[in-house]
Design goal:
It is a single chain. The protein contains no helices and nine strands. By secondary structure, it is mainly beta. The chain has one domain: Sandwich (Immunoglobulin-like), CATH 2.60.40.420. The strands form two sheets. A five-stranded mixed beta sheet has the order 3-9-8-5-6, with no helix packed on it. A hairpin with a 7-residue loop joins strand 8 and strand 9. The chain is globular, with a radius of gyration of 14 Å.
């Protein structure tokens, strides 16, 4: 059965886990040309600030918190995300193909 015209299609959804100053997975492949939902879980003991300033994506999570961000349609390429509270180790790359 097909959804009615104009109905929202489910977004491709991927999970990102922050723990002990690291983002996992460190490299995430997603489909290019689609909006993407990233579910962010903070399994660590300190707050995180997940962000990509070029896309105006920013999410602060307390320890144990879960939230999500929706990314715009990505052109093929690599996009860097950081945990601003753990700049040295909290990095991940989203690869759109």
């Amino acid at each position: 059965m097909h959804p009615p015209p104009g109905a929202a299609q489910p977004l491709p959804t991927f999970e990102v886990v922050a723990r002990d100053g690291r983002l996992s997975p460190p490299r995430l492949e997603v489909p290019a040309g689609s909006r993407i939902k990233l579910v962010i879980k903070n399994d660590g003991k300190s707050p995180i600030e997940f962000e990509n300033l070029a896309m105006r994506v920013e999410k602060v999570l307390a320890p144990g918190g879960t939230s999500f961000v929706v990314l715009p349609r990505l052109k093929p390429g690599e996009y860097e995300f950081i945990d601003e509270f753990h700049m040295d180790t909290g990095k991940m790359t989203v690869v759109a193909r």
